[in-house]
């Protein structure tokens, strides 16, 4: 499968480094598959729908920084996107759903429950149901799934695309692995904010990455279960070190191939 990398949001918080919303656009036999959806055109047109946390992240209001713009730039129509696989439903990952209302959405059952039956006050701030109000087909995957790699388990949601639960950032967070033409591409979502945490190298220069303390602090502050962060970083490091595997995360622009 051909895997494209796209920027679906640029964040400029005052309290942390500039960040991006990194999404994958996968050419699959079932149509185009997005891994994460970033911000949508409606979010950037009216950031008030993101609430106070959205304002704090200060996304660029540039419609070229959406998954929809990336799909069009690749020469496809919005309708070509038939599936969206989400690492989680935070508003900086699920906003693009409203640009692809016909797409089938895949997420963990635990994440769907957290986002739709949010009883925990901070969860009401992070999830914005308006973003998936036009989505009609949501496939939910409960529990651990089947043994996958190392000690991880997962749900193969489409041939060659596996949703691997990695809880911590949210109650139902997962990473998403795609068997690409050039090896396995793993989208770690928000299981690491600073890609130096799992030993990634700069996508362009190949150099080791420096630690970014404000991003580490923000990661802890934004985590539902911060005690899981260290173990998740270790799991990502094992994946990153395996032959033929590339791990990218959602927000660190240094692991984005090309200019971000
Ligand atoms: Zn995020």
Automatic annotation (TrEMBL):
Organism: Nocardioides zeae
Family, similarity comment: Belongs to the metallo-beta-lactamase superfamily.
Metal-binding in keyword set: yes
SMART domains: Lactamase_B
Metal-binding found in the keyword field: yes
Keyword vocabulary terms for this entry: Hydrolase, Metal-binding, Zinc
Protein name (Swiss-Prot/TrEMBL): MBL fold metallo-hydrolase
PANTHER family for this protein: BLR3078 PROTEIN, QUORUM-QUENCHING LACTONASE YTNP-RELATED-RELATED
Molecular function GO labels: hydrolase activity; metal ion binding
Coiled coil start-end: none
SUPFAM superfamilies in alphabetical order: Metallo-hydrolase/oxidoreductase (SSF56281)
Ranges of residues in domain Metallo-beta-lactamase: 20-233
């Amino acid at each position: 499968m051909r895997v494209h990398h796209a920027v679906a949001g640029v964040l400029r918080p005052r309290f942390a480094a500039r960040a991006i919303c990194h999404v994958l656009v996968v050419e699959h036999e079932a149509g185009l598959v997005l891994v994460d959806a970033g911000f949508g055109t409606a979010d950037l047109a009216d950031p008030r729908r993101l609430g106070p946390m959205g304002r704090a992240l200060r996304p660029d209001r540039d419609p070229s920084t959406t998954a929809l713009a990336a799909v069009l730039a690749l020469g496809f129509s919005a309708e070509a996107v038939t599936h969206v696989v989400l690492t989680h439903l935070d508003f900086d990952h699920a906003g693009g759903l409203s640009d692809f209302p016909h797409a089938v959405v895949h997420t963990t059952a635990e994440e769907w429950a957290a986002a739709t039956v949010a009883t925990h006050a901070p969860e009401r701030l992070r999830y914005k149901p308006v973003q998936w109000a036009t989505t009609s087909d949501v496939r939910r995957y409960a529990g651990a799934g089947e043994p996958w790699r190392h000690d991880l388990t997962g749900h193969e949601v489409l041939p060659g695309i596996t949703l691997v639960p990695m809880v911590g950032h949210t109650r139902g967070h997962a990473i998403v692995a795609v068997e690409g033409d050039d090896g396995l591409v793993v989208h770690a979502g928000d299981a690491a904010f600073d890609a130096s945490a799992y030993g990634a190298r700069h996508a362009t220069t190949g150099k080791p990455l420096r630690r970014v303390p404000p991003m580490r602090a923000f990661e802890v502050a934004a985590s539902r279960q911060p005690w899981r962060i260290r173990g998740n970083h270790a799991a990502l490091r094992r994946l990153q070190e395996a032959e033929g595997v590339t791990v990218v995360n959602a927000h660190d622009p240094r692991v984005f191939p090309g200019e971000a």
